[in-house]
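pasting for the record
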Amino acid sequence: MIYNIKRDHSRFRQIVKGKIKHDLKKYVTHGEMIGRKGKDTVTIPIPQIEIPRFRFGEKEQGGVGQGEGEPGDPVGQGDPKDGQGEAGNQGGEHMLEVDLTLQELAEILGEELALPKIEPRGHKTMKSKTEKYTGIAMQGPDSLRHFKRTFKETLKRQISAGTYDPNEPFIVPIRRDMRFRSWKSVTRTENSAVIIYMMDVSGSMGDEQKEIVRTEAFWIDTWLRSQYKGIETRYIIHDATAREVDEETFFKTKESGGTLISSAYKLCEKIIHDEYPPSEWNIYPFHFSDGDNWSGEDTKVCLDLLDNSLLKMSNVFCYGQVESRYGSGQFFKDLKEHYGEEHDTVITSKIENKEGILQSIKDFLGKGK
């Protein structure tokens, strides 16, 4: 019975994963899972699957296509007045909430977007200990008894002693027949990474643009956390000046004013220089903006910071341009002109609306760097 329950539960989870994978674009676009995120799991609402069944009508009623009426008349009975009538007594569509681990969600994202596994660059590692069963011992607790090996030892003893009867097999283990699983502690080292999010919060970046950034950052986090055990996240907001904030402030700040992109890049450079040596850390700066900058001179400062500092320290530098009716998009053009279409370290992506989030994630993470 327990085996059947586990098998059915496993099959159910496979069905759920298939449903989420099929509708991944919808889940990414709506962003509803972000508010349901726990420490290690995400609660995902999925429609319940109703099993179709036949329903028979009354015997006195006519068959299909019978009765009064003329071609073109609406199908149905009664007066078709919109929004009128008594309250119904039938159930509506129900949603089933399922918990998935962030690791399972990352696997779905990786399969759907065909994301390659990341090859770590930095050498800073975290040590973790795990217990690994590696052998068989003659002593141990009953909870670790190895039944198959115990049975074999008992059978060998009875055969060698001549007490085994193949016509009436009766296997009775004694203490010296018992075998137990043994283990040893294994220390594993795992690479660490830091994600540095930078976002333009000037007057031209509205709530819609910030929600796109928030949704995309959730999925980027989910994938990178599946690739690294030790990961840290830092947040920088900027208009004409830049400052580091916490996650909640990052996504809820409402500011106005001009834009000086270099202020964010300088702060990012300082954080990396002070706390994350590139020889030890895998570094991922992500910058989101609508593409407006104060002047061409500041854009030159940004390019100089990228060429001489940030690109040398980063695994990859990602710039996402969130389309806005008020933004010119010039910074995206400047990056494209300076670095070309296929640069190894600089990845640019245009995010016109929520529908473009999935493709943008693939743009950023599709190189496996």
